Amino acid sequence: xxxxxxxxxxxxxxxxxxxxxxxxxxxxxxxxxxxxxxxxxxxxxxxxxxxxxxxxxxxxxxxxxxxxxxxxxxxxxxxxxxxxxxxxxxxxxxxxxxxxxxxxxxxxxxxxxxxxxxxxxxxxxxxxxxxxxxxxxxxxxxxxxxxxxxxxxxxxxxxxxxxxxxxxxxxxxxxxxxxxxxxxxxxxxxxxxxxxxxxxxxxxxxxxxxxxxxxxxxxxxxxxxxxxxxxxxxxxxxxxxxxxxxxxxxxxxxxxxxxxxxxxxxxxxxxxxxxxxxxxxxxxxxxxxxxxxxxxxxxxxxxxxxxxxxxxxxxxxxxxxxxxxxxxxxxxxxxxxxxxxxxxxxxxxxxxxxxxxxxxxxxxxxxxxxxxxxxxxxxxxxxxxxxxxxxxxxxxxxxxxxxxxxxxxxxxxxxx
Length: 416
Hints:
416 residues, alpha/beta, four-stranded mixed sheet, 14 helices, 25% strand, elongated
């Protein structure tokens, strides 16, 4: 199993390109199931999760062509609307095939996702929405089995803000008979990117980016070409990596418009941030100021950046309070940061981080994707060598992480 070895103390500087967003690419690739015509996507990141989803689509009868960051999907031969547990268990986003399959085929059999280290991510909102649109849905033997002659437009209200739920129901509604209104919809930029892709394919959607999305169903969708948005979490992670090392970097192929809450906190920490049309530059002081934060659905501070900010607060001046409101188990990285010498106290969903003068390298273990990123950020500033085990989590969400960090001057290598 691969490990990452980081020799801390190097100041990051230079320029690096940001990849396409994993959390936008996954639902958008699933949208290809909605049409019998080829759909081409560019800026698709080369990640383990993307490969898993493409394999899942392939076993459904979708023709997959991949060249670099371009993927073309042809679902004209779609003949097996089943997502088996063997493939779904490694990636919870596989549930996103449910809505498109029911809409296009009138039937879907999708395995319930397995457990998740950072907490429960229930699919009941997906099921409730499809039932309101006329589908008969049964959960049996670990599978969601949905059937319907044709989905009908409906007014849907989600009990909680759910990104994948909003995306699944929006895709299902694109081919439904009549108008569907999704209230309490997720507002994330990735939802907007999916809506833009669906519109390019002929869907009629308005309100994406707000908490009320309206979809007027059409008889069929057609082929299109769509470019995946930049990964805002990868962007934020590299900004944190530069900040913690007192560095100065320029990130290209990305935009600050998706990251207002994160950039505000970095500026509060003492960084200078300059936004361009498709790039962000950051210059950090020798030592940061501690910044408190509270995670909440977009446009508030993203839960996927909480761990990285905990890492930079570990060596900042002062005390920070971090409150996690999205996932109940998302402080597991705190124990590993403590192995590096961090002063962190956990009380329920609140972490109190007292900045220390220095961290010391040690062997640590990644528990989930963003926890892995926080250990990388901490390892970059820790004295000596830090070895991060179980980095298959990192490979799920960060394209060529060690290469990009090395290009910025980090001393990092993969041990196979």
